[in-house]
């Protein structure tokens, strides 16, 4: 019975924290929606712990908890790969922007130099 309360409390805390992060604009909406789905998926499992047992028997898995833990690990791996992809994309974009800024600064310096030469007596 304690596991039901702990799982329910975890789901409720997750929902509150995610809404607060979204409200403060510290979490983007696309990630907030993803984590809200996760948090809301935890709540039914808290109140109905045997919810996955019928599905697990069809798959030949020992218990619903084993299936839930396996799917959680797979989900976290997918999130990790997605965030790595996003990080790589942003790193490339940052590099390109840095190069553009360097070129613009060089052009501005060259323009200032040529302008000083024209204005010199």
From TrEMBL:
Protein name: DUF2304 domain-containing protein
Protein's organism: Actinoplanes italicus
Keyword line: Membrane, Transmembrane, Transmembrane helix
TM annotation in the entry: 6-22, 34-52, 58-79
A Pfam family this chain is assigned to: DUF2304
InterPro entries in the record: DUF2304
């Amino acid at each position: 019975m304690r596991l039901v309360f702990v799982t329910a409390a975890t789901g409720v805390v997750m929902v509150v924290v995610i809404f607060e992060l979204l409200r403060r604009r510290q979490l983007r909406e696309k990630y907030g929606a993803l984590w809200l789905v996760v948090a809301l998926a935890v709540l039914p499992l808290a109140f109905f712990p045997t919810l996955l047992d019928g599905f697990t028997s069809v798959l030949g898995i020992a218990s619903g908890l084993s299936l839930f833990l396996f799917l959680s690990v797979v989900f976290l791996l997918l999130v990790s790969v997605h965030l790595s992809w996003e990080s790589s994309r942003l790193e490339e974009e940052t590099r390109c922007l840095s190069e553009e800024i360097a070129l613009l600064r060089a052009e501005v310096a060259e323009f200032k130099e040529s302008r000083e030469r024209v204005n010199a007596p």
